[in-house]
Each structure stands twice: as structure tokens, then as C-alpha cells.
Write a structure and sequence with these properties.
The complex is a heterotrimer of chains A (294), B (287) and C (383). By secondary structure, chain A is mainly α. Chain A has two domains: 28-73, no CATH class; 84-252, Orthogonal Bundle (MetI-like fold), CATH 1.10.3720.10. Helix content of chain A is 71%, strand content 0%. Chain A has eleven helices and no strands. Chain B has 287 residues and is mostly helical. Chain B has a domain at 64-235: MetI-like (MetI-like fold, Orthogonal Bundle). In chain B, strands 1-2 form a two-stranded antiparallel ribbon. Chain B is flat and about 75 Å long. Chain C is of the alpha/beta class. Chain C has two domains: 45-162 and 287-348, Periplasmic binding protein-like II (D-Maltodextrin-Binding Protein, domain 2); 163-286 and 364-381, Periplasmic binding protein-like II (D-Maltodextrin-Binding Protein, domain 2, 3-Layer(aba) Sandwich), CATH 3.40.190.10. In chain C, strands 1, 2, 3, 4, 5, 6, 7, 8, 9 and 10 form a ten-stranded mixed β-sheet that branches. The N and C termini of chain C lie far apart (53 Å). The chains are: A mainly alpha (294), B mainly alpha (287), C alpha/beta (383). Chains in contact: A-B, A-C, B-C. Chains A and B meet through helix 1, helix 3, helix 4, helix 5 and helix 6 of A and helix 1, helix 2, helix 3, helix 4 and helix 6 of B.
Chain lengths: 294, 287, 383
């Protein structure tokens, strides 16, 4: 059995380790791989069926205000999707709120998760339990109670209070997700680093953080998604600020305009493009590393 | 400051900001609601704190059906989510290579497309005269007059659909950190792939399963919107009751009492679940 | 020692928080306020001032934004038009605390549906209007809306748009024409009917089928109507109880008959041309969204100027063409005729006077009665 040189801290950990050797023949493994791939594709397809409909109906030539029946193909909704300044503003608000609250919640939650998993201290199980509580409270009661507090303290509801509320209920998601990454994680590499003289902070920065990065990234994505799509708590604490879900819910009374579909599709495309870019960059980086170590 | 002292304070330093945030913006409003749950009164004459624990008893006895239903729907949805998400997360963690992040992104992307639009889309797809229902009718799963919408199937399907990312992401996170060389070692030691999966992968993925189940089950219990849009009154969950009591009937004490009862059920459930999976998961130190 | 300090700190903070929370206990009632407010309304004068920056809260998609631009151009100032009303109850939940505490809610006009306006007017959460600033309203308000039970002289409320709550159906699926409220209860349509979950709408329409005038119904009569709905629901008559979301079901044929809003059917007819809307023979409910000036608003003259502006027939016509609900302004039909004859001749948007006479506004219930009604309805709808 060959012993590989220990990976350079923080770097090669991002490389994909080799797949285990096939057992029962390569064909069996290929079958397994194939089945998994098909299942995953089906699961993703299932997730995206409504999305296809939403995108499709952004091209619907609807004559009335509702957008339920296909009445013909048109590009007119795409001609000027930002025509309604309030709709555009609400989308921008939602994006800004999601970015800010995700940043805060991810930071707060990651550190909490680290403390909860790595250290023993009094009150740990209490805090552990406490972190689950925001998840279990119905949104309507939580939202109203938070509003009551803001009003009592004479705080004006609006953008800031929405961010505060969003951080409040996404922190728990971050903590739970990052914990799932931290629990059972091998500490030996970190201990090795510290044995070699790295301070705790350097170890954290160069070893721990990259190792938990996938967990933190996943938690951040989750927090962003929840924040973007939230309705109930936001509606209580939004004041006169409109967010995308608030606008759409209100619009259902008159019929959600197809421009909403257009904006949602545009968001989808932008995010996919960014991700595609990310994949490309990863590929470049990996190629460059391979070239460098060769 | 001594190293020992520093070590002692460190966890609190880490927890501090997050905990403070939650204490101020969650616990305080929550305590306020706790006091409301013990009040009696009506919107006209106002509410007074009378320590009316009877609110809780009334809440449980009157709405036990909805409580039960919420827990059942949430549990079924969680199991379905686990079944659907696990292979997906596994594939992403082990076989996807540099497309890992892309798959993760695809999993949560539907969330950026507004709940209302997604549900309307499902209503269109599953409508009585649509292809899906016709297909099921033709193969006999649904009766001639059968429908998919406005039924418990639709509500559970809606909950499953909307909470899938909450299960998939924690699962992925736990699976991705498993070193494949462990599996390699297992198979080198003559374990079959199935045994290796059972004895190596699953235990190591347990934190993810635990986290995913909780992140799915807990919010699903309090969900109201799937039942409202995809169900009939026979499917209404405790979330619908709380929503109605709070916004429509303005019975704040009962709404608060119902919420706390729900929270209590959920917290008890978490406790038992943690026990079943091994209490280590809830307060586990690193290996 | 660090442990002890920490524990004590937590303990102390905890009990302090609890004390704080409990000290803030007791939520004020509205009865006192209402009783105080039953005093006669003084005549008010809102002097003409520069409009400045003021806020108009409304439902989404309820105005042609050009109207706002034109208004600003004509009268100066700048209106912040906020579409933050998504639901009457939700909006009330949002601003209730400030209203009860007598504080300004930061808006100069809010547009809420009748039954919510009853609450606000009764509790004096609104400012009385200076009719001198509202000549168009006084002259052009349609006759059947000149007085409502909860605001007999229109001193606090000005209708924005009305709508009829009647029956939308697909004649191809039902096999026959419908013309009565009892058609909603026809067992031939079992499982293919939806009813609105808002008690005012459902109980109101059902009362008409029982020969009672909903506007003057007593709580007992209302409960009897809800009883009728309950019986039908138990027999499986209704597929669902809905808010606005019956529209997909009706358009797709999942249901054949819906308790529906006139404006929705106008829009749905382009999705499904078979759909029809009827004002039942017994009559239909009339809902009106009304503009009100919240108490302690700062820009009352600006608000009244806007209210007056939208009662000019030309402006009202622009709104009617955009919104497609029932305009409360006289003379609009003639203006609309010139540019959009189709809309002008659509009985769903411009019903004849005969039909208007059959449209009944919601009853003005006391808060106790309202709660009784809502609780009874909640039992039927399972919430």
C-alpha cells in the first residue's frame, strides 16, 4: 500500500479523493453509479418540474390578468420586465436582505456550531436545545411577537427589522447544518498543525475553515434560500418595505403578472451563470494545480 | 490571561454573538408570548394575565385532531424526503466531482422562484384534467373520478417538495466529509458493498440524517400553507388553526397556547429521536 | 469562580427578562375606545397646505401607476405609493398595536375592505374627513354607496373600488345555467363547488338564499346560515374553502361552480372563455375597498386631494379600465365607452342599476358578534 505524502494543509483537501476500487467487477460498480446518477437526475427533475412551468409561462400570451392557461407564445413580457418599479424594487430588496442576513447568520451560526461540537462547557446541552426552538415556533406567532417588541421599543419596522428577523430564524439552520459537518470530523490534522507550531487562529484559518467549508457553504445557501422566500415573519416586520414574496402574495388577489415569472427566470439564469462560472474557475484552478505539482 | 482561562472563555466567545441575537430577538418575544398564552379576555375588553393554564388544556382537547395530523403529515414527509434525498446527496458527495456545488445549487434554486409560483405550477400540473392525473387514472391508481389535488396526498406531496432541500443539504454535508478510503478499507477487509454501506457510511452519515430530519420535521409540523392551498378542511393542520386564531379571530391567548403546545410536542419529539439515534448526536464531542 | 459569575449573570438576566415580559402583559381592549368614540363627530377643517411627501397604502396591482404620476405633476409633492396591504387581517395584525396605543402608523391613506373599515371607524382609528376638500366625492359617488351602516354619512371612508361576490361557473360542466344561490348547494354538483372561507362572504350569500337581507341580519340569522353551510360541507358538497385561490381550480375545470369575485371572472374569461359570472336572483354581496385616513396621519390635506382626484370621471375611468372592478364613481361608463366599449358594456364591470340594487353591503357587526361568526365559520373550514 503506497503512502501518499500528507496533503498540503488546506489546499489539496479540495481535490476529489480517488473513488474506492471496484468490487465485484467494474460493471457492478458502473451499475451502481448509473442507478445513483439516474435517481439523482430524476430527483432534480422532480424539483424542477414547477420551475419549467414558471419559465414557460413567462412566455404566455395571457389576455387577462391570470396566467393559468397557455394562450400563445409571446415575448412581450420580456420586453420590459422592470416596468413596474415596485416589483423591481421588491426583488432588489429581497436579494439585498438575503445577502446581508445570510452573511450575518452564517458567521454567527458557524461559530456557535464550533463551540457546541468542539468544547465542553456548562450549559452546552441547554444551548443546543435552545437553538432548535426558533425552528419549532410557528411563524405567525414569532413574527407578531417580534413586531410587538419592535413597537414597544419604538423601532421603525422596515429593511433593518426584516434583516434582524431573518437572521434570527436562519441562525438555527446554519448551526444544525454546520454541526452535521463538524461532528465526527477528524481532528488529527488540526492537532498536527498545532503540534507543528501553528497558533489556534492560524489553524482555524488554514485548516479548520477549509475543512468545514462545504458545510458552511451549504448552510449559507440554505439560509439565503429561506430568507429569500420567507413570507409570514417578513410580512409582520416589513413596515412599508416590499419584498418579492410579499409582492407576489398580495398580487394573487388580482392575478400575478407574467413579469414576475420573467424576473424569477432572470434570477435563475443569473445564478446558474454564476455557478457555471464557478465550475469553470474550479476547473482552471485544478488544472493549474495539477500542472504546478507535476 | 492564563491558557486555561482562555480555553474556558473561548466557547462562550464563539457562542456569544449568536446567543445574544437569539436571546434578544427570539427569547424575549417568546417570553412575551408565553405570558399572553396565560391571559384571558377578548379584543373588546382587553386581555389580562390570569395565569389561565386552562388555555393549554382547552387547546389540546379541542384541536387534538389537528395536532395529530400535523405530526403524522410531517413525519411522512420527512421519511419521503429522506428516501428521495439520500441517494441524491450520496451522488453529489461521492460521484459528482467538480459539479458538487452545482448540484447543491440546483437543489435550493427552486426556493428563489417564490412559493406562490411553485404551488400554482403544481396546481396546474396536478389538475384533474391534466396529464398526470389522467395517467394515474389510466393505470388504475386513481379511480375514474379520482383527483390528486385537494387531498392529503397533495398536502404531503407539497410539504415533501418544499422541504426537500432541508433534508438534502445536511445529508450532503455529512456524507461529503466521509473519507472514501474508509470504505476502501472496509472492502479491503472483505466487507460487501452493502455491509460497508451499512456499517461505515450510515453511522458516519448519522449526524446528517439527524440534522436533516429535524430541519424537515420541525418546520413541517407548523406549516399551514400547503394545507391551505392544496387541501380541504379535512387536511388542515395545527398551523392553519394558529394562523386563523391569531389573524382572523384575534384570540391571542389561545393562539399562543397552541403555539407553545406545538413547541412542546416538537421538543419532546426531538429528545426521543435523539435518544433513539444515540444521545451522542445531540451533544457530541468531536471524535 | 468564572462559572459562578456566569451562572448568576444568566440567572439574573433570565428573571429580569421574565419580569419584563410579564410586566408588559395585558393587551388593551377596544370596547373602551369604541364607547368613547360614540360621541358625535366634530366638523373638521383640513387647511390647504403644500402636499409634501406623503404615503398611500394600497393593495398590489390596484392602480394604474400613471394616475400617481399625473397626480404628482398636477398637485406637486410626492406620494409614496406602497403596495403593502396583502390581506385585511394581516394588515390589521401589523398595525394594531400602534393604533391601539394612539400612535401614527406612518401612512396617510389606507385602503381596506368594508368589514375591516367597520372596526377602524368604530374604534376611531381613522380621522374624520373634511368634505369641503372632497367635492368630487360628494357629487359623484354612486347612489347605492352613499351610505353604509357603519359610516352613515361617509365621514370617514371613501370607496375605492367595489366588487360583487356572486357565482362563477362553467355552463359546459354544470350542464345548465345557474341563477340562484342555492345552486351552490345543489347536490348534483357535489364535490365540485368551492366556497369562500371569509365568513362575511359565505354567510352573507347564504343568508340571501334564506330570504334574509344580509346587511341587517342578526347574529342568530348569521349562525343559522353558517349552520346551512356546515351541513352541506359535511355532506361533501364543497371541494375546498378558498381565498382567491379558486381561480386555478375554476379555470382548469377542477371545480364547476365557485363562490367568486366579479373581477376575477372578468380576468379568467380569457383563460377559459366558457366561464360565466352571475349575480344570483336573490342578490349578491357587494364588497367595497375604502380609502381611510388613519388616526394621527400627518398629511390629511394631501390624502383628501387624492381622494378627490380619483373621483374625477376621467381618472376613475382610467382606474376602471385597469382594475376591472366596479367603479364607485358616476359617469365613468360614458367615459370608458369612448375608448373601451367592450369594458363599458361588460355587466361584470358596469352592472345595470337593477343589479346594483340587488347588491348588498356587509353587515356592521359588533366585535363580539363578529368573533362569534368567525369562530363558527372556522369550525366549518377546519381551521
Amino acid at each position: 500500500m503506497t503512502t501518499e505524502a500528507p496533503p498540503a494543509a488546506g489546499q489539496a483537501l479540495e481535490e476529489e479523493p480517488d473513488a474506492p476500487p471496484p468490487r465485484g467487477g467494474k460493471s457492478r460498480d458502473k451499475l451502481r453509479h448509473g442507478v445513483l446518477a439516474v435517481w439523482s437526475a430524476l430527483a432534480l427533475l422532480y424539483l424542477f418540474i414547477p420551475i419549467f412551468i414558471i419559465v414557460l409561462f413567462s412566455f404566455n400570451d395571457n389576455q387577462g390578468r391570470f396566467n393559468f392557461t397557455w394562450q400563445g407564445f409571446t415575448l412581450r413580457h420580456w420586453a420590459d420586465p422592470f416596468a413596474d418599479p415596485d416589483l423591481a424594487r421588491s426583488l432588489v430588496n429581497s436579494i439585498e436582505i438575503a445577502l446581508i442576513s445570510t452573511a450575518i447568520a452564517t458567521a454567527l451560526g458557524t461559530f456557535m456550531a464550533m463551540a457546541l461540537v468542539r468544547y465542553r462547557f456548562r450549559g452546552r446541552s441547554g444551548v443546543d436545545f435552545f437553538v432548535f426552538m426558533p425552528l419549532s415556533s410557528p411563524e405567525v406567532v414569532l413574527g407578531a411577537a417580534l413586531l410587538a417588541m419592535f413597537l414597544t421599543l419604538n423601532v421603525n419596522t422596515g429593511f433593518v427589522t426584516i434583516v434582524i428577523a431573518h437572521v434570527m430564524f436562519t441562525v438555527s439552520y446554519v448551526v444544525v447544518t454546520v454541526k452535521a459537518r463538524l461532528e465526527g470530523m477528524d481532528r488529527h490534522i488540526e492537532e498536527a498543525a498545532m503540534d507543528l507550531g501553528a497558533t489556534e487562529w492560524t489553524t482555524f484559518r488554514k485548516i479548520t475553515l477549509p475543512m468545514i467549508a462545504p458545510g458552511v457553504a451549504a448552510a449559507a445557501m440554505l439560509a439565503a434560500a429561506i430568507s429569500f422566500d420567507d413570507y409570514v415573519i417578513t410580512s409582520f416586520n416589513a413596515g412599508q418595505t416590499q419584498t418579492f414574496p410579499l409582492f407576489i402574495f398580495g398580487a394573487t388577489r388580482q392575478g400575478v403578472p407574467a413579469e414576475v415569472n420573467v424576473l424569477a427566470t432572470m434570477l435563475l439564469i443569473v445564478v446558474l451563470l454564476l455557478m457555471g462560472l464557478n465550475v469553470l474557475i474550479q476547473k482552471r484552478l485544478a488544472a493549474r494545480d495539477a500542472a504546478r505539482t507535476a | 490571561m492564563s491558557l486555561h482561562r482562555r480555553r474556558q472563555l473561548l466557547p462562550w466567545l464563539f457562542i456569544g454573538p449568536g446567543l445574544l441575537w437569539l436571546l434578544i430577538f427570539f427569547l424575549y418575544p417568546l417570553l412575551n408570548q408565553a405570558s399572553v398564552s396565560l391571559m384571558t379576555g377578548n379584543p373588546e375588553q382587553g386581555y389580562d394575565l390570569t395565569w389561565a393554564f386552562s388555555n393549554y388544556w382547552d387547546a389540546i382537547s379541542e384541536y387534538k385532531e389537528q395536532f395529530g395530523r400535523s405530526i403524522v403529515y410531517a413525519a411522512i414527509s420527512t421519511i419521503l424526503c429522506l428516501i428521495i434525498a439520500f441517494p441524491l446527496a450520496y451522488y453529489a458527495a461521492f460521484h459528482a466531482g467538480r459539479f458538487k456545488n452545482l448540484i447543491l445549487l440546483l437543489i435550493i434554486l427552486p426556493f428563489f422562484m417564490s412559493y406562490v409560483l411553485r404551488t400554482v405550477a403544481w396546481q396546474l400540473i396536478l389538475s384533474d384534467d391534466g396529464t398526470v392525473v389522467s395517467f394515474f387514472r389510466s393505470i388504475g391508481v386513481l379511480g375514474d373520478d379520482g383527483r390528486l389535488l385537494a387531498s392529503s396526498t397533495a398536502v404531503i406531496a407539497g410539504i415533501t417538495y418544499n422541504f426537500l432541500p432541508f433534508m438534502a443539504l445536511p445529508l450532503y454535508v455529512a456524507l461529503e466529509k466521509i473519507d472514501p478510503r474508509l470504505l476502501e478499507a472496509a472492502t479491503d477487509l472483505y466487507a460487501s458493498r452493502a455491509t460497508a454501506f451499512r456499517k461505515v457510511t450510515v453511522p458516519l452519515a448519522l449526524p446528517g440524517i439527524f440534522a436533516g430530519s429535524l430541519l424537515t420535521f420541525i418546520p413541517a409540523c407548523g406549516d399551514f400553507i400547503n394545507a391551505a392551498l392544496l387541501g380541504t378542511p379535512q387536511q388542515y393542520m395545527i398551523g392553519n388553526v394558529i394562523q386563523s386564531k391569531f389573524l382572523n379571530i384575534l384570540d391571542y391567548p389561545q393562539a399562543a397556547a397552541l403555539s407553545f403546545t406545538l413547541m412542546l410536542f416538537i421538543l419532546i419529539g426531538i429528545f426521543l429521536y435523539a435518544r433513539v439515534l444515540g444521545a451522542r448526536n445531540l451533544t457530541q464531542a468531536a471524535v | 469562580m468564572a462559572e459562578q459569575t456566569r451562572r448568576r449573570f444568566l440567572g439574573r438576566t433570565g428573571s429580569l427578562a421574565l419580569a419584563y415580559a410579564l410586566a408588559g402583559c395585558g393587551i388593551e381592549g377596544t370596547l373602551e375606545k369604541a364607547q368613547k368614540a360614540a360621541t358625535p363627530i366634530p366638523e373638521v377643517t383640513h387647511k390647504k397646505v403644500p402636499l409634501g411627501n406623503w404615503t398611500f397604502s394600497n393593495w398590489p396591482l390596484y392602480i394604474d401607476k400613471q394616475v400617481i404620476k399625473d397626480f404628482d405633476k398636477q398637485f406637486g409633492g410626492h406620494v409614496k405609493y406602497v403596495e403593502d396591504i396583502n390581506d385585511n387581517d394581516e394588515f390589521y395584525g401589523k398595525v394594531r398595536q400602534q393604533l391601539q396605543a394612539g400612535e401614527s402608523i406612518g401612512r396617510d391613506i389606507v385602503t381596506l375592505t368594508d368589514y375591516m373599515c367597520v372596526k377602524w371607524v368604530r374604534n376611531r382609528y381613522v380621522e374624520p374627513l373634511d368634505k369641503k376638500n372632497l367635492p368630487n366625492v360628494v357629487n359623484n359617488l354612486v347612489d347605492n354607496l352613499k351610505s353604509v351602516p357603519y359610516d352613515k354619512e361617509r365621514e370617514f371612508t371613501v370607496p375605492w373600488q367595489s366588487g360583487a361576490v356572486g357565482i362563477g361557473y362553467n355552463p359546459k360542466k354544470t350542464g345548465r345555467e345557474l341563477n340562484s344561490v342555492d345552486d351552490l348547494f345543489d347536490p348534483a354538483f357535489k364535490g365540485r363547488v368551492t366556497m369562500l372561507n371569509e365568513a362575511y362572504d359565505s354567510a352573507g350569500l347564504t343568508l340571501l338564499s334564506m330570504g334574509v337581507n344580509p346587511t341587517e341580519a342578526s347574529i342568530d340569522q348569521i349562525l343559522a346560515a353558517i349552520e346551512k353551510i356546515q351541513k352541506a360541507a359535511d355532506a361533501g358538497q364543497f371541494r375546498r374553502f378558498t381565498g382567491n385561490d379558486y381561480s386555478t381550480d375554476l379555470a382548469k375545470g377542477n371545480i364547476w361552480v365557485a363562490h367568486a369575485y366579479s373581477g376575477d371572472i372578468v380576468q379568467l374569461q380569457s383563460d377559459n372563455p366558457d366561464l360565466k359570472f352571475i349575480y344570483p336572483d336573490e342578490g349578491a354581496m357587494l364588497f367595497t375597498d375604502n380609502m381611510m385616513i388613519p388616526a394621527k396621519a400627518e398629511h390629511m390635506y394631501a390624502a383628501e386631494t387624492m381622494m378627490n382626484y380619483v373621483y374625477e370621471p376621467e381618472v376613475a375611468a382610467t382606474l376602471a379600465i385597469y382594475v376591472n372592478y366596479l367603479s364607485p364613481v358616476k359617469g365613468v361608463q360614458e367615459v370608458v365607452e369612448k375608448s373601451d366599449p367592450e369594458i363599458a358594456n361588460n355587466p361584470l364591470i358596469f352592472p345595470s342599476d337593477e343589479i346594483r340594487a340587488k347588491l348588498h353591503p356587509y353587515p356592521a357587526l359588533s366585535e363580539t358578534d363578529e368573533r362569534t361568526m368567525k369562530e363558527a365559520m372556522a369550525k366549518v373550514t377546519g381551521a
